[in-house]
Amino acid sequence: MNAMRVIAGLLLFSWALAAADITGIWMGEVAGRNGEKQDLAFQFQTAKGAVTGVMFGDEFDLPVQDLKLDGDHVTFSVETINYYDGRRIRTAYKGTLSENILELTREQVTPDASGKQPEKPKEPAPKLVLKRLT
What we know:
1 helix, Lipocalin, 49% strand, 8 strands, mainly beta
């Protein structure tokens, strides 16, 4: 019985070590309208055993939703509201995490007004490379 507990404890410990540490502030640039560069930044933190995050915005910060970490793979989404028509827009992010680099792709996953999913782009989504600041 004790051997089972030791093995279970070692497995949990090794799983915890295998999960990459996403906590901190991550910043990079994305191509905006007319090809202009725009800053993109996230902050992730751990509180009471749960990892939470926010995406920094010009006027207000947006909470990260559906955050999942599996080893060095990360997925999450951010929901914004269109300023002009009030439509909710959900963007899904997925990627890999190394010590100080977070490589992500993003995809709009919000259905349009008719309920149809947006068409998938024919070209692969560009990688967003974020660097850990803290």
